[in-house]
Amino acid sequence: MESKGAIVGLTLSSTRHDILKGILDSLCYELKFNIETMGKSGIPIQGLRATGGGARSPLWLQTKADVTGLTVETLECKEAGCLGSAVLAAVGAGIYDTIEQAVKQMVRPGMSYRPREEQSGRYQEQYQVYKSLYGCLKPVFHKM
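Structure (tokenized):
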């Protein structure tokens, strides 16, 4: 709860767009870090599914794909909680015999975002900077 953040690399010509893009990029770098950590723990991640409000942002979805190197898929119905409730209700009402049947009929894929080679290379360079900065700034982020 006491963690802090930092915005690094601002200049006098930095714009609101630059700051917002930096926030989106950093969220994707942290996602990549978590995916790598899970992989080291024996939990390989081979693709991502995006739901909720973030699944409505093509820029953010493409950035996730470019940064992580994984395909990011959305669902036709972006609100996973509502869709899950509808699946359970359909089974409870006897429309489908099993959750698996209901999911097969009710969960439909949306858009897919695949990593773009040129952008992925640039993001990998920035990701290395992100990781080194985190290590340097960790005492500031978690100061007691």
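The first strand starts at residue 48 and ends at 50. The CA atoms of residues 11 and 23 lie 16 Å apart.
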